[in-house]
Every structure is written in C-alpha cells, then in structure tokens.
Amino acid sequence: MKLIGIVGNNANRSYNRTLLQYMAKHFANDVELEVREIGQLPMFNENLMKAVPEAVTELMTAIEVADGVVIATPEYDHSITACLKSCLEWLSCVGHPLTDKPVMIVGASLGQQGTSWAQTQLREILNSPGINAQVLPGNQFMLSFASQKFDEQGQMTDARTVEFLEKCFGSFQRFVQTNRETQLALA
Question: What are phi and psi of 45, to 5 degrees?
C-alpha cells in the first residue's frame, strides 16, 4: 500500500513532520508512506492556473498514484495553516487528485487539546464539493504535548500513544483497502 503523508505547515521544526516521519518508519513493514512538504508550493492564485506551478503538479501526481493520503495538521488560532489551506485550494482547482481518495487526518500540538479545532475544519474542507475526499470517520489521532512524546531521534516514547496510533492507523489501512476494492468493483 502506497501512501502520501502531507506535512501541513512550512515550519523548519514541526512535530507534525516528526509524527509523519515516525509513522513512515513505524509502519514500514505494512505500507510505504512518503512524507511530502508543502512549503515550496506558491500561495494559491487563480492567475497562475493557466501555467500550474511544477511543485503543484508534482504533488498532484504523487497523490493520484497513491492509495491514500495522511494529512498532519497543526493548529494555529483554532484553524489549519494558511499554507495547508492554499495547498488544498490548488488541489481542488487543478486535477482534483483527492476526489474519492481515502484520507486520514492526524495532528500534533504542544498544548492539551491537540489539533481538535483544526482537524474539524480540515474534515469540512476535505468534504467540500471541489475536493470530495473520502475522509476516515472517527479514529482521529490528536497528539497533545508533542514535545514530551518524542525523543531526540524522533521516536515516540509513550507506549499508550503508540498503541492508539496503531489502532487508528490499522483502521485507516482497512479503510483504504475497502475503498480500493469498491473502486475495482465499480470499474
């Protein structure tokens, strides 16, 4: 199973990037999870749609050939980041690679509430008519106090958190498999 992991911010140091990198290593026996950055994408601008930037086209192609997508979103001011919103605007206007694509939402935060507001907003955006992603119901993985949950090598140190992540990710793998079987049956 081939998955794309999207780091939902453009910060040099990001616990959401660390989370996706951890997931790529931890689940390497089950899936190939390619972590992708969005910091190189230009802000969405309708004036650029005639000549879509290469970085947008590359991300679009990677999503199209993947079986599913994991989006790691931070939360700033009860919302997703501007760069993640811009990325999704590109993907909703050009090629529509997220249409019917299984998506799992995860997030890491320094605070107690994790990324609950951002995840709710992201779920709504992914369900919008221009995107039409198949978002994994439930199984929301929100990592609170992220600075205390990873060691210096990026390994998750809390066994209960790892166990919960494994449960959520197992549900996502089944979700992707069911989606794949449904698409084949409809073809």
Answer: -150, 115
What are the distances in angstroms from CA 183 to CA 70, 83, 176, 179?
19, 31, 10, 6
pLDDT tens digits, residue range 60-118?
999 999 999 999 999 999 999 999 999 999 999 988 999 999 999 999 999 888 899 99
3-state secondary structure of 38: coil
Residue 63 · residue 97 · CB < 8 Å = yes
Task: Decide if 76 contacts 111 (C-beta within 8 A).
Answer: no
Residue pair 99/56 in contact by the 8 Å Cβ criterion: no
Considering only CA atoms, which of 90, 61, 73, 89 is closest in space to residue 2?
A: 61
